Amino acid sequence: MKKNLALITGGFSGEAVISYKSAVTIDTHLDRNLFNVYKIDITKADWHHLLADGRKIEIDKNDFSLQIDNHKVKFDAVFIGMHGTPGEDGKLQGYFDMLNIPYTGCNAAVAALTFNKRNTVASAAFAGIDVAKSVLFYQNDGQNFQQAVSHLRPPLFVKANNGGSSIGMSKVNNPAVELDAAMAKAFKEDEEVLVEEFISGREFTVGVFRVKNEIIVLPITEVSANADMPFFDFVAKYQGKSSETTPANIDEGMAINLRIAASKIYQVFNCSGIVRIDFIYNEEKNRPFMLEINTIPGQSEVSIVPQQVQAMGWSLKEFYTRLLEEILL
């Protein structure tokens, strides 16, 4: 018997535009022989499902159900395809936990922790994982930006502490001239801003997931911004201003170090489902430095995880089915 599956998209942040792109890919590749799929758009205005005839049916938030004509649809599972709040920061996960509805991805506690970049790198450092030096700022906390980051070696990366897709991110080569503007840009996206020290090296990103208690590391991708882009930001990621090589052209020793680090991070943070972990590999020290953990990695046509899945030899239909089987068993 087919399971009723809610595919969650939308969101309350600027990342909603990416959520809609991811939802198209996921929706296209979900196995209709196994699932009745209902796409649920969650916005600040409402939570709804659009019927084929154009009617908008609102979700009953008391039990997360749909009343379609005389038929009540209750869901066996949820596929979270939403980036940003409230789908990536633990809020929806906590809601579904209270309703006892299984969902893809990390649990509420892990999602909340990893959505906060500062807490993520602090936890990683405590576990012996290499990360960049950083300083966290709160809006209107009165800190002198220049003085607080004086111990960090530029260039610096300034980013919203809670968020993704590199929205509001800046690279600062000259803090005395550029830092204030970069901080103002980041504070438009979040009330907390993280400033990180630059780590030289090549940038890699690694998809990791678990199937039947086995942690599987997907083929590694090397990412780089085009020559006209200062770094791998939102434009580079989503507007064709970057190059991505999957699998990465690296020696096996470097690949092994990245796989070991990715598996360790997945275990240390008690991740579930598919996550994507970003690294800078410092060749002088011959080890990877973790940048961040993405617990709802993009699934759009240009996103990295779908590339890695295909490079592994799986179809996206098979991949999504495996993710759902993990939570439905």
What does this structure look like?
The chain has 329 residues and is of the alpha+beta class. Helix 2 packs antiparallel against helix 3. Helices cover 31% and strands 28% of the residues. Strands 12, 13, 14, 15, 16 and 17 form a six-stranded antiparallel sheet that branches. A five-stranded mixed sheet has the order 4-3-2-1-7. A four-stranded antiparallel sheet has the order 8-11-9-10, with helices on one face.
Which key terms come to mind for this protein?
five-stranded mixed β-sheet, alpha+beta, six-stranded antiparallel β-sheet, 329 residues, globular, 17 strands
The end-to-end span amounts to 14 Å
Largest sheet: 6 strands, antiparallel
Structural class: alpha+beta
Percentage of residues assigned to helices: 25-40%
